[in-house]
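Render this sequence as a predicted structure.
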Amino acid sequence: MGQDVSKATILVEALPYIQRFSGKTVVIKYGGHAMVDESLKNSFAQDIVLMKYVGIHPVIVHGGGPQISRTMERMGIHPTFVEGQRVTDSETMNVVEMVLVGTVNKEIVGLVNRHGGRAVGLSGRDGDLIQAEQMKIYKYAGDERPPEIIDIGRVGRVGRVNSPVLRALESAGFVPVIAPVGVGPDGMAYNINADLVAGAIAAEIKAERLILLTDVPGVMRTGDDGTSELIPSMDVAAVRRAIEDGTARGGMLPKLKACLKAVEGGVSKAHVVDGRRAHAILLELFTDAGVGTEIVGE
């Protein structure tokens, strides 16, 4: 009896959140360990299907960096990164599309459908969904010299999102699963960081929430004694400081930039969540405590 009451209590706790989010869109960046561990893959798919059944409209943007790197290494191509971005020449771009669009995307679509959902796989090339512009990275070269421009190849940033494509799928009851490959004005494919794609899509469609699954508990603060602790909440000003002062480094940098883009674009909150926890999405959306770090407006 006690266990039954506990289950009922959990459902009652979730009720106001279900009411709040029903009819709203939630953009989820799916990546990290949650894409590798079989148990976590299944719990992720169950979360997506449950959200759809209670009236929430999930949009999935997936990564696949480790899968790309493994494939490149098997092909004798050494992966190189600059400020968290993969340096992408034409040969690397072919591998990126092959892995993200041809393999990873279809696996996620199949996973969601197998658990009772109706998922549709897309890349940014489909319907010109993600129109890309080439990204340049600028490196400080001294007070009296212009910044050095680092060309990282066919790496893009999101120029525009063709939101009617997503709205059409949403109204038809489908879950869009998006590979972060954009199309440039020259018709060529561009590799775009999945966090940045998720942030841009969330801002464009005015999603209620952006959730980024990662392999750490959230955004961490390192104390003077070298120990780290979770930052449960950050406002826009704190995120900007973390980006500008170098606190945010490596893979966390595009995540915080994505959160900033989303919140400044009208998304109520963005969340950096530990995807290594089973049902992390439901815990973040439907419980009082939540998990990970939330990013809120000023």
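Summary. The first strand starts at residue 25 and ends at 30. The first helix runs from residue 2 to 21.
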